[in-house]
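Chapter summary example.
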Amino acid sequence: MNPIKEYKFYYVYQITNLVNGKIYVGVHAASSLKNSYLGSGTYLRQSIKKHGKDQFKKVILHICQTYDEALAIERHIVDKEFILRRDTYNSEIGGHGGKYWTDKLRKKMSETKKALYENGLEPWNKGKQVGNFMTAEALKAQSERMKGSGNHMYGVNVADIMTPEANAERLRKISENNRKPKSKTEKYGEYARSRFFIINKEGVLKHCVDENDPRLTSGEFQRGRTWREF
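The structure predicted for these 230 residues follows.
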């Protein structure tokens, strides 16, 4: 999936195996909420192949305005503790956080890479920039399009675009979250309030939360959404 491409919906979803109760949480961008996408996790795909698609239920947890917002929410949900649970299919920390590296996994990956390189295969990302980021111009244009009636959620009742089951689950989770301690929610809120944009000469924007971030101190990036020559 290319987050630079413009979609109508960006959302965080949960897939539940109706046979064993195991779940998978992911992020998807699509032109419609009514699609058959069930996730790309390796273990999830294996389970779908074993049990069949009709044994899996999809629920939309959050509908977001941007892909980055969806990733941030996924990162908050799918943390290290989540992927280590026995009832989840996720094997990587959410929000492009990557795998939770154990000694066993490091050894396996090292042996796999060694075997590939010995056979003359090059890394998939050789000579490429890893990650996709919106330029300042693209971000500004998207912001303008999303204002007022240009926002795809303007005047829309979320319940009207979700299945009754998905909406009931959404309301249940809201009620549940209102009753339980807000430690994780507050922690995410603090992070969201403290983050700011940084930009490089090429116009690549990224989020940052540390004024002493090496990218800033090296001069490669500067704070803001517009590069300034001093």
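To summarize the output: Residues 195-223 form one domain.
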